[in-house]
Amino acid sequence: MPVEEAVRGGLVDAELARRSEMLSVTVADGDEVPAEMAVRAAGEAFRMAAGGGTAAGCHAEDVRLVLHAALFHQGNELWSAAGYVQRRTIGNTCPAIEVRQVSNGGMAALDLAWRYLATSPDAGAALITTADRFCLPGFDRWRSDPGTVYADGGTALVVSTRGGFARLLGLAVVSGPDLEGMHRAGPAHGVGVRVTTRPVDLGAHKAAFVAEIGMARTVNRVTEGQREALRTALDLAGTKLTEIDWFVLPHFGRRRLQSNYLRHLDIGLDRTTWSWNRTVGHLGAGDPIASVDHLVRSGAVIPGQRCLLMAVGAGFTWSCAIIEIDRRLHRAG
User: Fold this and answer.
1) Which of 46, 174, 225, 308 could make an S-S bridge to 229, C-beta 3.0–4.6 Å?
2) Nearest residue to 73 (alpha-carbon basis) of 95, 100, 97, 109
3) Angle formed at CA 70 by CA 170 and CA 228, multiple of 5 degrees
4) Which CATH superfamily is domain 3-163 in?
5) DSSP string across 307-318
6) Inter-CA distances, 270 with 9, 257, 274, 298, 319, Å
7) In 3-state terms, the chain is what percent helix, strand and coil (to 5)?
């Protein structure tokens, strides 16, 4: 959906839209549950893996772990979206686990898969999926979190011990539980309270948290956590920031992206996927996977280049990963 259309339809205030500098957002049709979007993404990921993405090829029957990450409601209560993805994709009996790390879910799942495969080299492969659908009455994609436009969509990634189109050189996940109160009602460091109002209003929660804790203290803590994740990932990868060719950042609006990332990294938009991100929107846990896929499919990234993936999730958690592109990825058939 074009942002201009949303403004004309009264879905978003014109000034809020202007500040975000977003052009459009992906909006799901019909009543499709998010997990089905993940299933379709997984099918494409397996086709890509079998069609030249790995030296030996990777197939659904090689998967020994399924991790499904999501931010919002998956369509049914007391239901395993991870089990649904498993049944609809590989149909085996390996562990299928849902990862709830909010917008950091995709990277958290990658960290878990990486560690699982490192200790179980015979496991072969892990399937990571993400999917979300942000809709009323529970969530207002335009207003629930001012500064970020939330998008519908699913992503998938196959992680293998047999090689692939890219190698994971280093990954770090850092937690900051002293900031968890920023995304809920109640005292910042007190007992949480149940909220029944809809839609979600993250802007109000953040404002209340900052009013109690202070803006400077909050900003410094967020910056500190992000820097720790970045420093740790670079050290694990044996890489310097100056050796990074592409920066894969969350699909935030322009102002939030500038203040949270571009300013600290001292980079321009041309080294990010912003020109594409602004036509898609924030895919919840799926931003890093989707952006890497875009870089590979578009041919923007070439073998030998290194990409820095960064993510952040309410809670608070920060993730950074460094990957090196080994080969171009081609479609099966």
Assistant:
1) 174
2) 100
3) 30
4) Thiolase/Chalcone synthase (3.40.47.10)
5) EEEEEEETTTEE
6) 32, 13, 8, 15, 22
7) 45, 20, 40
> Could you tell me which of 149, 156, 158, 124 has the C-alpha nearest to residue 39?
156
Quick check: bond before 316 cis, omega within 30?
yes
d(CA 296, CA 309): 14
Give the phi and the psi of residue 42 in degrees, each rounded to 5.
-65, -40
pLDDT in tens, the chain (333 residues): 999 999 999 999 999 899 999 999 999 988 899 999 999 999 999 888 776 544 456 778 889 999 999 999 999 999 999 999 999 999 999 999 999 999 999 999 999 999 999 888 677 899 999 999 999 999 999 999 998 999 999 999 999 988 889 999 999 999 999 999 999 988 889 998 888 778 999 999 999 999 999 999 999 999 999 999 999 999 999 999 999 999 999 999 999 999 999 999 999 999 999 999 999 999 999 999 999 999 999 999 999 999 999 999 998 999 999 999 998 765 443
| Residue 19 token pair | 């500040």
Q: How far apart are CA 155 and CA 283, in angstroms?
A: 9
CATH code, 169-325: 3.40.47.10
Q: What is the pTM of this model?
A: 0.93
CA atoms of 300 and 23, how far apart (whole Å): 21
Cβ neighbours of residue 261 closer than 8 Å, sequence gap 6 or more: 247, 249, 250, 310
What are the domain boundaries of the chain? 3-163, 169-325
